[in-house]
Automatic annotation (TrEMBL), chain A:
This is Sugar ABC transporter substrate-binding protein. It comes from the Bacteria. InterPro entries: Peripla_BP_I, SBP_2_dom. The keyword NADP does not apply. Residues 1-23 form the signal peptide. Its main location: other. Belongs to the bacterial solute-binding protein 2 family. One of its GO terms (molecular function) is carbohydrate binding. Residues 59-319 form the Periplasmic binding protein domain. It is found in: Cell envelope.
From TrEMBL, chain B:
Keywords: Cell membrane, Membrane, Transmembrane, Transmembrane helix. InterPro entries: ABC_transp_permease. Its main location: membrane. It is a multi-pass membrane protein. One of its GO terms (cellular component) is plasma membrane. The keyword Cytoplasm does not apply. It is found in: Cell membrane. It comes from the Bacteria. Coiled coil: none annotated. It comes from Devosia ureilytica. Pfam families: BPD_transp_2. CDD domains: TM_PBP1_transp_AraH_like. This is ABC transporter permease. GO terms for molecular function: transmembrane transporter activity.
Amino acid sequence: MKTKSVASLVMAGMLATTSLTFAGPEVVSGPGADPTCFAPWSADTKYLQWPAQEGPYRIAVVNGFVGNTWRIQMIKTAKAYAEDPSIKDKIAEFKVVSTGTDAPAQLGAIEDFINQGFDAIVTIAVSPDGFDRVIRLADRENVVLVPFDNVLDTDAVMQVNEDQTAMGNQWAQFLIDELAAAGKSGGKILEVRGLAGNSVDRDRSAAIHDTFAATGGDWEIVEVVGNWDDGTAQKVTADAIAVHGQFDAVAAQGGTTGVVQAMIDAGHPMVPIAGESENGYRKLVAARSADGLKGISIGQSPGLVAIAMKAAVSALEGNAMPQLISVPLPVATYDQLEDGLNFWSDLPDNFFTVNEFPPCGVNISGPAIMSQSEADVN
Amino acid sequence: MTVARAFGTSLRQNRGFYGAVVLLCVLYLVYNLLHPRGFSSAVLIQNANESVAIVFLAMAQTIPVLLGGLDLSVGAVMTLAACIASVLVNGSPLQIIFGMVVTLAAGTAFGLCNGLIVVYGRLQPIIATLATGAIAMGLALFIRPKPGGDIDGDLNWALTNSLWDFVDTYALFDPDASWFAPFAWIPVPILIMLVFGVGVWLPFRRTIIGRTIYAIGSAEGAAYMSGLPINRAKIAAFTLAGFFASCGGLYLAIQTASGNADISQAGAYTLNSIAAVVLGGTSLLGGIGGAIGSMIGALILRVMSFYFRILSIDPLLQPLVEGVVLLAAVSLGAFRVLRIKNRLELFR
């Protein structure tokens, strides 16, 4: 019945409309549904509303690149969340495909799922541009397309991400506060940046610089490029220590385990540090915070996929949704770390610790899924 | 009778090619049977769109492979062409056509340079194109350091849809005219592949240069002794490869309405183009096969990945399944070894 009506809608759409007129979400005024979970990005974020459809829904996740811990954890989280009692009854069919870094294949997969009559498609875009055609098709057939993590340069679709600028601000503010507590209002900071040319790297770095500049203190920020990778970050940190001697604090966008390792290897004193959410980094901070390695850990969570799925279902139910959803930053400071709760001494260093979002009812513990599947493999 | 005999001979001489055609037909038929909206124009359009870039790259790769070489720069040339197109293909219709011509000319010129380096630099194609591929990638990054560009939206819509939408977008005539109905469902990307792929390749392979390429792949010494234009054929082979790669890049840019100097995507396309060439029945040793076979091979590669969207296969197992199926498909070509009468033939 449903497929038939969708098919007839498509036929009608193909025959009756010209290519330039299409349906899609209506722009409405807020507030949207469940604002503690689906927080709008800013005050001028617009709200989108799709016509309510009857569940249960067919949902697909179209991933691009696969092959690092973050992506694997993301896929496992998506599968586990689809089985979660809070949402299981609302999902009739759930599919996950990875297309690799191949833009035509990703666009093709999205279009295929639209053709198959799926109701919502969650995706990590391989490129911030180039989705015009699938957005047009999705709108024509009232399919909810939800890019997350690597989002698109458009305001025509609902998207889910963490605020990278806020992340940079919090990192810098933590370091400023820790240094102030030690009586310093200026000094030399090491900044380990991420992948060059990437918008995430740009936003995080700009926020770090702005926050330090706003204090009016005498800061010298030394930038090195670590590519969010432990090995690269470790090497560039070691080089920076060799050249500059000593830093008063470190701000690392990623590869933080490698950064701390380089400091230990060089005999650099343990100083306040801001970093990502790698398990290895949290292990090191927990072990050495008493020596002065006072750290803050904020992460881009693989659990974002669950928020994107939840947002898709909410949109299909006809709720008004913010066009750009800002997911609360998962923060842990050195005094909050607890083994087995927000880091795991028995799990690998490259594991991403943050996976849960209590305000959204997303309680899929990353370690639980990862360790469970390892048992399956053995 | 003679037609049947000619077909029989062709079948015997091109087992790999006909095997690939049968495999593609079976795979595609089953895919459409399983698809909830199988055998519809919408599904065909989507499949065709997704296949254009890899089909052109596979055709590009075929020609150096027929020489007995490999072109590792095809993915990079495609990316370079896409980045050039993302800057030039917009504005008035005349400007758009100008942009397209410049894009294709740039890719073709890059292929020409590859040929000149291989012939007069006396370098192995695999190593020469590895280097020039990096140069193409560098140029692409220079032209488009960040993904973006504004390719004409109507062009994007018109070329990635059926003929009906193409006619409708540009208001050429009444798209609902009764004489037009039998063709209206045909996807534009399929026509593009036929016109620019088959339309260029088939006449080319019948020329002396085209036949010389096969002769070089079979036995370069014999080709030389026969007085064939070896240098010209090699340069032409790489030039045509550059042309096909830039066709793929131009379509990629129009399809995504943007350009993106994505290094890992370029690498993946180069490797997939080699896989498609082998799947299509072209020998990596050179001299046997053809670009039409590679077109079929590229389509087989694509259809294999379509299945993951229909069947429920664990997402983390999908690369494994794809690899095993690919290995099985390529192994089909090795069955001739079982029938071989003289072991010396193995070294052929």
